[in-house]
Amino acid sequence: xxxxxxxxxxxxxxxxxxxxxxxxxxxxxxxxxxxxxxxxxxxxxxxxxxxxxxxxxxxxxxxxxxxxxxxxxxxxxxxxxxxxxxxxxxxxxxxxxxxxxxxxxxxxxxxxxxxxxxxxxxxxxxxxxxxxxxxxxxxxxxxxxxxxxxxxxxxxxxxxxxxxxxxxxxxxxxxxxxxxxxxxxxxxxxxxxxxxxxxxxxxxxxxxxxxxxxxxxxxxxxxxxxxxxxxxxxxxxxxxxxxxxxxxxxxxxxxxxxxxxxxxxxxxxxxxxxxxxxxxxxxxxxxxxxxxxxxxxxxxxxxxxxxxxxxxxxxxxxxxxxxxxxxxxxxxxxxxxxxxxxxxxxxxxxxxxxxxxxxxxxxxxxxxxxxxxxxxxxxxxxxxxxxxxxxxxxxxx
Length: 397
Known about the structure:
Blueprint lengths: L22 H12 L2 E2 L11 H13 L12 H15 L9 E4 L1 H13 L5 E6 L3 H9 L3 E6 L1 E3 L2 E3 L2 H7 L4 E7 L11 H14 L2 E5 L25 E6 L1 H4 L7 E4 L2 H11 L8 H10 L4 H24 L3 E3 L6 E5 L8 H12 L1 E2 L1 E2 L7 H4 L2 E5 L4 H12 L5
Parallel strand pairs: 1-13, 3-4, 3-7, 7-8, 8-9
Antiparallel strand pairs: 2-10, 5-6, 9-10, 11-12, 12-15, 14-15
């Protein structure tokens, strides 16, 4: 018989008590229960390139990665990551000392924050933020300090004065995400230059989440923060294969940084998963060497899907913030006579047979995000067309 503790202390560590079940699990379960189209969670409904899937099969059959791979990642992938950074951005990294393979970007974020943040340190993060950021800062014992991106001119923009004011003597680290989930904003070179100047002036570390680096549209351009003056030695850059190659279940991510930073992150990472995704690492190494035509076709495909969904949402009465990058369209529901994103998203499956995510879950200041709702467009065109059709008949609140 199981004996329960007599202590009144909760089982869950108090640092994690505020988080509970992620909104993605809740809304995906709601989609399954109601048979709704799931435009909530950001994963494609088709697989990536066939030749990359076959590369994984080949690695499995050849016995590459079926046992524990090297702790930092297989040499082929670390070399491919370094070559990618050099070819795309002119950033030179040593594959042996400045590249670390992780179980997706989520582990890279967790390991970076656990390694670099001491209890009581402040971490400035752009709000709204990917939900794991808050949990990882809490697990590290840090204090998150949100700087809110606000709508301006049809997009969400960073107030640089507010960012500067958020930095105190207790600030250890800036946590930057561009292209930005969930708003779809891509920070400009001018904005990133100001971030870099602040980091150098105040001697701050920066962790930058760039998993959507290849998913930028129209005139937007992704500028890695590490390319800017003074940033190479203080920036931990994170990316992954899931969003770029549409194999999100493989969970292959990476960190690039100066040797001392990589060594610190590796010290934390080795006690999380230690290693993961052995055969998939070899396949992702091949994926990173795909020709430029692959990346161009990916962007054009997603741009067309963005336009399809954005036009349908606007026709249905939403105010649409047209994203410059990522998988996601953020909308304002107030033109529909609504103001509570949580209530709207929980009722939407019954009202229209579509699932979305309330942006307020990504905010400390919940009132700032209350009227905003995020839809994912990384789905087949016929799925998006059906979702648009259902939303067109959405009863007004």
